[in-house]
Design a protein that fits this description.
Number of strands: 86
Protein name: HPS5-like beta-propeller domain-containing protein
Number of helices: 8
Shape: flat
Organism: Electrophorus electricus (Electric eel)
Mean pLDDT: 75
InterPro entries: Beta-prop_HPS5-like (IPR056499), Beta-propeller_rpt_TECPR (IPR006624), Quinoprotein_ADH-like_sf (IPR011047), WD40/YVTN_repeat-like_dom_sf (IPR015943), WD40_repeat_dom_sf (IPR036322)
GO cellular component, one term: cytoplasm
Low-confidence stretches: 1-7, 358-604, 835-880, 1197-1218
Length: 1218
Amino acid sequence: MATHPPSLPLREFCPLYYLLNAIPAKVQKGFRSVLVYLTALDSNSDYIAVGSSIGMLYLYCRRVSQMNKYNLEGKSEPITVVKLLSCFDDLVAVGTASGRVALFQLVSQLPGRNKQLRRFDVIGLHKSTVTALAWSANGMKLFSGDDKGKVVYSAVDLDKGVCNPVVLLEEPSAIVQLEYSQKVLLISTCQHSLLFNTQEQSLVQLGTKPRKSNGRFGACFQPALCKQSDLLVYAARPGLRLWRTDVRGRVQETHVLKPLFNQAVPKFQLFPRSVPAGSYQPTDRQLGVVSCFLKEGWVLSWNEYSVYIVDCTNQVIIGGLESCGDIVSVACTDYEIFILKGDRDIMRISNCPEGLLSNSKTNFYQSGPCPSSPSEMRASRGAALTDERSRSSSITSWESTQGFSTASTTETSELSSSRYSTITQEDFQQELVVKPVKLKRKGKRRRQGILAEHTTPSAQLYLASLPLQDMECEMYGEFVTEQQVAATPDVDMLLECTFSYVHEKVVVEDPILDASGTLLDLALQPQLDSQGDFDLDLPYDPIRPLAYSPEPEPEPSSEEEDIYAHAIPSSTSLGDRLNTLTLQGCAPKKVELDETRFHKADQLAESWMGYSGPGCGILSLVVTDRHVWCLDFKGSLYCSSLPNGSLSWQKFEENVQQVALSPSGSLLWKVEQKTMTAYACGKVTIKGKRHWYKALDETAFVALSDDTAWIIRTSGDLYLQTGLSVDRPCARAVKVDCPCPMAQIAARGSVVWALSEQRALFYREGLSSYCAEGEQWKYDKISESQGLESICIALGENDTLWALDTSGSLWFRTGVTAKKPQGKDEHWWQVSITDYVVFEQGGLFQMLIQATQSVATVTRAPVERVAERLRVAFLSPHSQCQPSLVSAGSSGVWIASGRNDFHVAKGSLVGTYWRAVVPRGTASATKWAFVFSSAVPTKEGSFLWLAQSRKDLFCIWDQDLQMRPLTVQLPPDVEMVQVSACRDALWGLDHLSRVHIRTLSASCPTGMHWTPLDLSQLGHVRLRSFSCGSQNVWACDANGMVYFRVGTQPLNPSMMLPAWICIEPPEQPLGVHLVVVHTSPNDRMLWALDSRGCVHVRTGITEEMPVGTAWEHIPGLQASQLVLSSRTVWVRCSNGEVARRYGISDKNPAGDYWKKIPNTLAWCCFLAVTPMDELWAVTPAGALTQRLTKTLPHNTGKNHGNTGSLSGEELEEEWEVI
């Protein structure tokens, strides 16, 4: 039996107050009051339909948050069943206790569709209670069944406005469930389950064995876009058994589930209620009505006593709910379950809050529980809820879940999740980063020191008048002497925080120059210990190349922006000789430099420069406009000017628990160790007397904007000080209500975000110049929907919000302003900061020199993931220590990582988000086998070709917003093992190594028929793979030989057929041969994979020589799939990771290096790329996903050119940070 998977975050996030409050508890019937009971339920992504005991249908539109009521008219009788359908029109059918069936055609906002509500009635055929309803996919057929066994078929013609019902068949027992698909009606009764073919009018029973006992056992189709012959059925049986049958009723598999119930059934996490739900255990557990849910192999079963989700593939119970027999109805959508329980209690079970799409319908079970929702932070007052609830329109907002009011306060309950999650050994993966190196220079070194810091104007935050608490400002002085810090920390002092590292230096001698001053070679072969980390002392930024105008090329995608295409900054740390060398060396060889520079603008985009920390680890890293501040684990605070050259650390203070600075650097606070008292620095000096003002005691965390201070007390209370300046660094504090204990605050301008102790994110609404305190906290539902467990947050330049999570991933949101503090993005964008660049053995150093025209290098030494830094931070002996490992400012984004390292990205960054795509008309559980792309004959965009197996093929235009699939008929009795397409042809390779071609045209973009290709020239050669370009076709046979053909169309046999030209494969060891070849859509590239997963490229391909001249091996990684766009190459590694090749051009067909991209949804099992570099993937669960990207350009307008060029003589004077 399979091992039980990790616990799933399937739970009830919060009660559906907005829905229940819109349905009256009582109605007036003459002089008497009648209670309203809820009797039926159905749901989809657009509506929630609820039937009642008074014959009223309540239909809640989820898009516009509006409740509509529909009366059946006539006698008020209970509604017993409801069924929704969304197709061309929105339809809802209801059945009543007396046998009446009514269907409503709802009003549509689409042009040309129904503009008036219409109702159709089926009366007289059913004589008893209607128990089941089923729609056809197009809404033209409605099937209904009653408790006497009668099944009625109603032919619906919405255009003509008619509904013609007829009795389809009659069974001796009650109808339990109906489902319809591919002209087959699945009927479940209390005695057996049947398949009725409506076209052939034939009836087949599921299986041959009769049931041992009668009961309400249902059956359902497995959802998929398939033919009738491929239909599969799940049927419940007595004794906790589940059949899996085909469309002919033959049992293919019997799942015996009874052993799974010998252990405790994992329960859904329910919202606290006055009467606990789900605590009852039925004496006789049985399956009931069944349906497929969320994932292939997952079956949802329910009856009046229980609801279970069973993974039939792995033979485990995913979750369940057991009751005392009061479950009335259950309905499910793609990723949520609605349970009608008792008289009027509706529960929603899902893996994400309502209103947000599931962040991963296929892999959410791997990521562990989502962060606690605001509803879980409610006080126990939820137990006191009665029928006289407030008529709140929604409980998804924070104020409604908390019951905020100006006259009352709410209590907060303890959060169930632990403060910190366990970081396993798998998290300690390694990254490779670009690090600058120290140069030995002849001549006198200039001493480095701290710079003068200048204030910059910033948006101010004002505080509304509230009762103030008088707090004394106590001043005391301390005489501090200047102390220059050694670059190598004391290792012994790090034992108390379980911190150790190896600190080695790599020194590069002077470069060798030729007569023209051009850099010829710089051999750097450091002896690297495979077990250690290596820090390069005294780092500096590589000099950026002069701006240039390359030849016109295709417009780069959103992630292609050169971060080095700026003028060279002055830097005395490199010396005049090096600057002169770089500038003069470019002039005589401008043409050469244009060729040797990167051919695209994205070659070193998203580069992370590495620096060493000044002390014993990095607990907090704060960046202002002109300085970077670092707090180590010993409580020592260091400061350095921003590195246009090298970092020069100076110790600023000791015994510091936490440090906070305003974005401009004008305000500086510290929290003192042991006493946990906050002090504000009045006059910051490197030398001389330093004045500290006592601001507040019992302080756990401080966040500063340019004129306010947000303070978290050790008790968990939140305070605010306003009106701060250089002359008034602290003021009186006022208390601000907060929904739960906070661990960290980020403030910038008029935007405030908070991170709770349970890693939930909140933002403050209503901040303005008139109300600096703001109005209320709002819970960030986006973070919860993506399962983001943040550990550090920061607000940066250009209205950005940054978050670092427990797995070491960096995320950002944009458009975070005072008017819209939550930002304009509907999700977080991930930036990869680990395992980013895959370095190769040789050639990389010269590539970097050509790219930057400066003295820079790269080490292949691994740098540990950010998770290592987080783990060390949590093991600090100070339990209230909150690490701040991410900071963002005008100088870039700074991340503390490794053991005593931090990294900065000064250029543009690209965020990645993988979006799940469900083609129209397919179920979310549809499992796709592969996807690939080709250009469209005439229209913009690309075609996506998808299949669920070798026997089907579908085509989708990626510009179609509804993603409607078109069926492509395959040749009869043919299984396609590979397909490849270009603009005018679709090629297919079947299981017998025969090639079929389908001509594509503007009038018929998916083609009309298949034509077999004559392969007589190849003799007994069996092709294994092929790839179509715009004009040429490449193929590879089973022995690894490569073939080339001009032309993609099948020609008339009477004409001379194009010849297959045999190309020698690359020289390989014995037993190794090519298995796959791929050409680009424009015929300019040819790449191949061999049987070991090694990558090869064909060089010398031109218009005059389309077959190329030689093969070249590409080192760096093992690949299991190659895909080519018009400009570059993407690979899928054996572990599912995705990497892209950078630097490819006509003159450099091999490119320069691989770079991995973030993949937060799931590691893909099949990859596709459009000609314009849009990436699609199929996850291991078979879901189709699309990669969305967003470029975050670096704003260089606030660069301070002189901050890093002060000489040591200037720094000998006393400088003050103002």
